[in-house]
């Protein structure tokens, strides 16, 4: 069986002839765009998310639909097609599907009516004025040892965002909405554990972190080591904080990359701290 011409046309059109993995979404045909006939047998640019054979790339994931139909195909340049088929374990099917979706969203965004995109852009602009977005990593990078007290400001800004702009969410851009939701959720999970208290049988209630201490113009909040080490859960708590920090920073970087690439007109560094 081979990829049906109809499936190929749909795939090619929705991807606007771009490789889903090439940086800056270069055309799959690169310099040779005029010399290649779409209808010829040169289908090497169409990769199967899940291979036809169980022994093929990602074949063990199983697939119940038509393996040669649009849903199971992704448009790739020959270089990336070889990469994903030679190393299927490094490129799982869920990852390939996400890449395909991101590219199609990018095509949509590029063609979208200005009004919808403008709505997202205006909301993001307002948000970035109130969010110290580019400082967030430095604020929590030393966890689980300490963090910057300003880390909690992000939570306040995220609380106020839907109050100030009730129509901003969900964003029209679906991938942006998904990445932003992940960012917010993982932030809440991390900030919650940092502000919570632990009930212990012998010691009563202890807080994970001590009072903030001033260092220059910054306020650091060190781990409450003396009291924490006295309880059995100490290691678990630290590992949990470490895991949540990792998760959060991944989501943060994903969102930042997406914004930089798809919304270059937004200044991620436009935070204006409120002046008293
Ligand atoms: Zn490529
Ligand atoms: Zn293949």
Task: Describe the 3D structure.
- With 276 residues, the chain is mainly alpha-helical.
- It has two domains: 5-111, no CATH class; 114-262, no CATH class.
- It has helices spanning 5-14, 78-86, 93-111, 114-130, 136-140, 151-164, 174-195, 225-228, 234-262, and strands at residues 46-48, 73-75, 146-148, 197-200, 204-207, 213-215, 218-222.
- The chain has a three-stranded antiparallel β-sheet. Strands 1-2 form a two-stranded antiparallel ribbon. A two-stranded antiparallel ribbon has the order 4-5.
- A hairpin with a 2-residue loop joins strand 6 and strand 7 (218-222).
- Helix 6 packs across helix 7 (174-195) and helix 7 runs antiparallel to helix 9.
- It binds zinc ion (2 copies).
- One zinc ion binds at residues 19, 21-22, 76-77, 79-80.
- Residues 47-48, 81, 85 line the site of one zinc ion.
Question: What's this, in brief?
Answer:
With 276 residues, this protein is mainly alpha-helical. It is built from 9 helices and 7 strands. The relative contact order is 0.11.
How are the SSEs ordered, and which strands pair?
Blueprint: H1 5-14, E1 46-48, E2 73-75, H2 78-86, H3 93-111, H4 114-130, H5 136-140, E3 146-148, H6 151-164, H7 174-195, E4 197-200, E5 204-207, E6 213-215, E7 218-222, H8 225-228, H9 234-262
Antiparallel strand pairs: 1-2, 3-7, 4-5, 6-7
Helix pairs in contact: 6-7, 7-9
The protein binds zinc ion (ZN) (2 copies).
One zinc ion binds near residues 19, 21, 22, 79 and 80.
């Amino acid at each position: 069986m081979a990829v049906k011409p109809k499936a190929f046309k749909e795939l090619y059109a929705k991807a606007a002839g771009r490789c889903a993995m090439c940086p800056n979404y270069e055309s799959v045909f690169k310099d040779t765009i005029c010399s290649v006939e779409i209808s010829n047998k040169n289908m090497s640019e169409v990769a199967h998310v899940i291979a036809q054979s169980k022994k093929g790339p990602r074949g063990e994931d199983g697939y119940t639909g038509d393996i040669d139909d649009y849903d199971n195909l992704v448009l790739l340049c020959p270089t990336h097609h070889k990469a994903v088929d030679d190393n299927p374990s490094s490129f799982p099917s869920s990852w390939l599907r996400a890449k395909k979706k991101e590219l199609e969203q990018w095509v949509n965004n590029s063609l979208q009516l200005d009004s919808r995109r403008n709505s997202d852009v205006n909301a993001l602009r307002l948000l970035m004025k109130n969010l110290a977005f580019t400082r967030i990593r430095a604020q929590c990078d030393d966890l689980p040892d300490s963090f910057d007290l300003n880390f909690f400001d992000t939570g306040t800004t995220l609380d106020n965002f839907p109050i100030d702009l009730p129509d901003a969410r969900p964003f029209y851009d679906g991938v942006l909405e998904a990445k932003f939701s992940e960012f917010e959720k993982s932030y809440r999970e991390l900030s919650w554990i940092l502000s919570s208290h632990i009930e212990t049988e012998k010691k009563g209630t202890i807080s994970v972190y001590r009072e903030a201490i001033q260092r220059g113009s910054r306020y650091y909040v060190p781990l409450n080591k003396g009291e924490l080490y006295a309880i059995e859960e100490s290691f678990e708590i630290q590992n949990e904080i470490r895991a949540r920090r990792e998760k959060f920073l991944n989501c943060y970087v994903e969102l930042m990359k997406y914004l930089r690439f798809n919304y270059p007109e937004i200044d991620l560094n436009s935070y204006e701290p409120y002046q008293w």
